[in-house]
């Protein structure tokens, strides 16, 4: 039996349309399933936990939605030991990318029904779980600004959701004030000045393919921290295109760290997001929980790139 969790609003309404196609296919295949159309992240977590408790054995919980929808069910899946299937229907879909799950719904459904179970680490932070990355500083402020804006609603009405984020980036670039921050990685303290963002990553990308931590692997028992510090607004603007390829890691104002736990403390309180969803403000303590989740992925996943060296990363030690 499969539990499908559908966020009809994900991807600006794509979730509903994708589910209509998926449901037709499930009926054609005679698959046994229950469907849960969820209305909000908070109620979804509770409803999924209740649904999973009603039966001893579930083949999988398949999310039809984006990274935020996946975020809403992580705690329930971890607690019940149920594997995660993904039919991507969000705007970013970075979780699907990281596990080689096709973005096309029919192929993604195949992966969920016939794929292999691969172990995945989870990031425990602020009393909840995150799969892609916990970000604080500039990135989180962009998300907060966009969500609170009038232009988001306008752009969504015009089916131009990405434009809202572009406006949000420019708006935040003008208004954001970087400040000093301390990052404690596996007990070692690193001090930085003029910090724009500190992202603690489990998967290589967020924001729809931005390779913020290109070396991150979901099953290595490690988290990768990217700190951008000590650069001007113009330098930050020029950094964006390099993140598409992950080549920003060699810039002098980018420091990568790697370990099993990370605590981030900005001198001035900053917002934080996990899987693109707000997880509060203030100091962050993140711990990698190895193999806490199983994800159903296509059998032909490409070989993982060689893992980088253990311990702290490329350059550490401050601005
Ligand atoms: N299970 C859920 N059911 C309904 N709404 C949810 C659920 N989980 C999260 N949400 C809300 O729906 C919004 C959109 O969901 P989601 O993040 O999955 O899609 P997206 O933002 O289009 O894609 P992505 O996160 O991949 O960029 C979230 O930001 C959150 O506010």
UniProtKB/TrEMBL annotation:
Pfam families: DAGK_cat, YegS_C. Residues 1-129 form the DAGKc domain. The keyword Plastid does not apply. Residues 297-308 have a biased composition (Low complexity). Its cofactor is Mg(2+). Transmembrane segments: none annotated. InterPro entries: ATP-NAD_kinase_N (IPR017438), Diacylglycerol/lipid_kinase (IPR005218), Diacylglycerol_kinase_cat_dom (IPR001206), Lipid_Phosphate_FormReg (IPR050187), NAD/diacylglycerol_kinase_sf (IPR016064), YegS/DAGK_C (IPR045540). One of its GO terms (molecular function) is ATP binding. It comes from the Bacteria. SMART domains: DAGKc. This is DAGKc domain-containing protein. It comes from Paenibacillus sabinae T27.
